[in-house]
Prior knowledge:
The protein is mainly alpha-helical.
Amino acid sequence: MRSVIFYTAARLAIFLATMGVLALAGARGFLLLMLALLISGVVSYVLLSVQRDRMSSAVLSGVRAQRARFRKSVSKEDA
């Protein structure tokens, strides 16, 4: 769960930093928002690849554990 929170916080920080730089450069309104989304998405894709992999493995292991608990509870009901 920690990796999910860290990745989300890092994405948000990159977005806000990009938005700040673009605002200082003179972008306003809708253009500011769209440029910040685009640029921060590309930067996050490059810089956060390791964290994204950690997050996806944490999510996958959580899903697998939940499925295992579900199968176990279904098998108990059938017995």
